[in-house]
Amino acid sequence: MLGFLQRIYQSYTASHIPFFAAALAYYALFSLMPLLFLLVGVFGFILRGNAELESAFFSRLVELTVLLFPTQPEIAQTLLSFLTKGAFPITFASLLVLLWASSNFFAALAYALGVIFGQGPPRLQLPFPPDFPAPGLSPLGRGSRRVLAQLGALRGRVAALLAPLLLGLALILLALLGLGLSFLLRYLPAGFDFLRGGLELILPILGGFLLFFFTYALLPVPAPQLSSALLSALLAALAWEGMRLGLPLLLPRTQYEVIYGPIAGFLLALVGFYLTMWILLSGAVVARVLSEEV
């Protein structure tokens, strides 16, 4: 047992986990900025399709504008026009930026996991170099073989670029599904109230477990053993649930806002992202050591 813990500590220090956790936390936080503009664009589409909602929103916006800028009441109409007329370009541009940022984040995460697991031979490595001499082949045959090799490398590069994006979108959808199920629990029929307590405890742990498991099983190169990924994902999910429940007790938001003012929410989000990335990468270290034990 002591030797196992020593190997975990050695892998932890050799992989620079705190450094990668901090870098990924900053990356994740700033990668979510396009999401705010995406929500603004979606809200603009909703306003365009509902005249009553647009009228009610405009009346409230006028009240707020008069309160904040009494000498410039026309700001309300300008903002409403910006939301409704600019809904499509805002949504489209923010969606593209969000996809690009998400792809870069998950590519960086894949790189960090590759450092932890010991990056194997590149997936894009060709079975033979393009200029490999092929005895007995005509110049035309050698040329066609070189073209096929280059096309294979290009296909591998495209797959390597799309894989982090597709996996990242799948993980984001899984997280949103967990949030949606947690929201639906509030509206269970009266006869199913007994399920609410158990599901509210199980669903976050199950969602975290699936997120960690798919990350450990699909992103690293080389991938860990399936049993190691399962056990590490379970440990990481339990640690993340403890962090989710314990962080508000250690850092109450009201007291934090009194000390740090308007940036309190940003700092708390940064701490949460850092701890999440640290738990994820530490679980990857455990998965690597467990795979070496098998």
From TrEMBL:
Keyword Cytoplasm assigned: no
Pfam families named among the record's database cross-references: Virul_fac_BrkB (PF03631)
A Gene Ontology term for the protein's cellular component: plasma membrane
UniProt xrefs under InterPro entries: Virul_fac_BrkB (IPR017039)
Keywords from the UniProt entry: Cell membrane, Membrane, Transmembrane, Transmembrane helix
Places the protein is found: Cell membrane
Main location: membrane
Membrane association type: Multi-pass membrane protein
Domain of life assignment: Bacteria
Regions annotated as coiled coil: none
Annotated protein name in UniProt: YihY family inner membrane protein
The organism's taxonomic lineage, starting at the top: Bacteria, Thermotogati, Deinococcota, Deinococci, Thermales
